[in-house]
Amino acid sequence: MGKSGLEHLYEWKMLDEKKGDYEESCYMDEELKLMHYGIRTKVVSIEDTGGYSLWVPLKDFEVAWDLLHEQVKEVIDIPRETYHVFEMDLSYRNKALYEDKYKVNQKYIRSRNYFLLGLILLAVFTLLKFVKF
Asked: pTM score, two decimals?
């Protein structure tokens, strides 16, 4: 049966599995490393054989695999999520989608213009002081 809508964005894939006598915090270092790059993780216990497995969203699987197996040194840019995750009261929105990367600081431009105008006026008044008409 095919996936409809945005279901594929919410699928998870197993990244690693540790069988045997492990504690739930066995993936702490891996989770911290992936969290640094904005990749969500979840640790699931394996009921039948014991141990734990590390899961990541399917859309982030390739990046997470390369990071944990040291195939890449650094991730420069991670594609942002194209969907919004809302709380029950609809108070959260994905602010990264709304921020302007190329925003120009208008206060700086305005103050620079006033500074240049002041320098020009100072030069004109200084010239007028020494020039006799």
From this structure: 0.51
